[in-house]
Amino acid sequence: MKIEREVNGTTLIVKPSGRLETTTAPELQAVIDNELTDVSDLSIDMEQLEYVSSAGLRVLLSATKKMQAKNGNMKIQNVRPEVLEVFKITGFDVILTIE
Q: What are phi and psi of 53, to 5 degrees?
């Protein structure tokens, strides 16, 4: 998995590509953990993300909780249909802010 990141003011934009699964989820977790300090908004652009496993869902849930704890906002953008289906099956479409 490749992860691009960009900070625009107080917004962190993370763009993972490939598969977010057991072996790659720690990479995304590390990016989020290391770069949330000075941001109030987190945007995860999933345009290039092909698959999300339960390990990836844990990372997204963790990020949501971290942003809520600091009164920040998190949104998911450009979700592919196959990933959106995983969100719907697991109920994450209700938990996450998806645009």
A: -100, 180
